[in-house]
């Protein structure tokens, strides 16, 4: 993983997010732990979760196969609140360094491009992340008008605003508001895999748009896991250097965030690497 101290030689993207301890450390400590985590990531490389791959719908192991966002993982999330997880050390929500939420333009569907004074564009397999917010506490109906701040790494495992090479960019971060059916979506690129973590996206759910841009009234912080066969097909394409090996070294069952259960966080995916993927998850709040 990048985040402010890559040389991008043979050991690029070789940091772990400290899983549930990321924000307990200040940023300088986080940005100096490359060598120690190389050893750790080797220890995490256990048995790879088994899952077939074809050119169609994608799912992942330990969850019965489904072909839509209303499958097993989504149904579980619809009847139970998504687990609270760490935001990790690179949230850019003001809690650990920069605050992209305070920037004009952060409310947008297309997060592939930087905004404001930045102009970079993230490259990778086109992907739409589609979330449906479920009001579990209110009886299971759609959660309308809530705002989601979503962020993830780029194809090389780097987070904007933190990595040396992407510190001046703010792409792959954005806010969207759920509609009357609780739905919202982001146009993005498929993230890469870096050592020690299963491919994922972070998100924070806020009461409404005003609360999101103010960084207040947060309802939930969690993470979405990308399905394995989608990852395998994406990482066989150009631009995802090292991701296939990193994926193989860290199984979903061994990930420090998802190892305790991921049924409500494991997305489904449809589409292909040429036409783009649609990744879906129902999120219980």
Automatic annotation (TrEMBL):
Transmembrane segments: none annotated. Residues 109-197 form the Intradiol ring-cleavage dioxygenases domain. SUPFAM superfamilies: Aromatic compound dioxygenase (SSF49482). InterPro entries: Intradiol_dOase_C (IPR000627), Intradiol_dOase_core (IPR015889). One of its GO terms (molecular function) is ferric iron binding. This is Unannotated protein.
């Amino acid at each position: 993983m990048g985040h402010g101290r890559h040389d991008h030689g043979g050991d690029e993207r070789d940091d772990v997010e400290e899983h549930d301890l990321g924000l307990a450390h200040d940023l300088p400590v986080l940005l100096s732990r490359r060598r120690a985590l190389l050893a750790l990531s080797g220890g995490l490389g256990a048995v790879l979760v088994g899952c077939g791959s074809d050119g169609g719908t994608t799912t992942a192991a330990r969850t019965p196969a489904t072909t839509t966002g209303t499958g097993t993982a989504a149904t579980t999330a619809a009847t139970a609140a998504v687990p609270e997880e760490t935001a990790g050390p690179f949230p850019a929500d003001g809690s650990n360094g920069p605050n992209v939420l305070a920037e004009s333009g952060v409310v947008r569907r297309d997060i592939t491009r930087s905004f404001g004074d930045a102009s970079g564009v993230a490259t990778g397999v086109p992907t739409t992340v589609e979330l449906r917010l479920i009001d579990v506490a209110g009886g299971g109906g759609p959660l309308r008008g809530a705002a989601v701040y979503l962020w993830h790494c780029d194809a090389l495992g780097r987070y904007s605003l933190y990595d040396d090479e992407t510190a001046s960019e703010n792409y792959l971060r954005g806010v969207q508001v759920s509609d009357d059916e609780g739905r919202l979506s982001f146009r993005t690129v498929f993230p890469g895999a870096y050592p020690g973590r299963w491919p994922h996206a972070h998100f924070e759910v806020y009461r409404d748009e005003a609360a999101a841009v103010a960084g207040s009234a947060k309802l939930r912080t969690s993470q979405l896991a990308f399905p394995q066969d989608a990852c395998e097909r994406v990482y066989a394409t150009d631009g995802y250097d090292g991701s296939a090996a990193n994926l193989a070294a860290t199984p979903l069952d061994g990930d420090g965030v998802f190892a305790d259960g991921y049924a409500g966080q494991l997305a489904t995916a449809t589409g292909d690497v040429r036409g783009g993927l649609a990744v879906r998850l129902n999120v219980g709040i």
